[in-house]
Amino acid sequence: NGYRFNDPADWRSAHLWSTTGKVIFSQPSSVSPNCEVEVREHLDGWRTLRFILPGGQGSVQSIHRLKGAGTCDEQAIANEYLKTTAAATLAALGACRQEGGLEMEQPLRLLFLGLGGGTLASLFAHLCPDSQMIAV
After folding, report:
1. b or e along 53-70 (b: 16 or more beta carbons within 10 Å of the residue's beta carbon)?
2. In this structure, are strands 71-72 and 58-68 parallel, antiparallel, or unpaired?
3. What's the start-to-end Cα distance of the chain, in Å?
4. Residue 16 CB burial class (10 angstroms; 0-12, 13-18, ≥19)
5. Closest C-alpha to 94, from 105, 104, 84
6. pLDDT over 90 for what percent of the chain?
7. Contact, 13 vs 5, CB < 8 A?
8. How far apart are the C-alpha atoms of 62 and 42, rounded to whole Å?
């Protein structure tokens, strides 16, 4: 059909960030002393923030791709649930604005319940630069 969707973090890029990677930061958690917080560097500028338990088991907390020194690519969202959350939010905002439920001249106000790795906050700061955002 010729349709191409430009998703810099689609499933075909998972091999870039789902590897073991190289540990570039590691420190005991200030919340749980038995847990280690790690940042791992992967191919093509991808980085993962992981929580590692005493037995070596761990989980990925967030995934980001750098586009420059210390700057994340806010449009490269690797987690499917975050893509779905962002898409649903943008669709709802668009529908509200079309029906007059949101005043165009007032800045958008967004509340994030939890910040996590800041993926959604970064995306919305990029897409809605005049918005006011709060994370609790």
Report:
1. eeeeeeebebbbbeeeee
2. antiparallel
3. 44
4. middle
5. 104
6. 51
7. no
8. 13
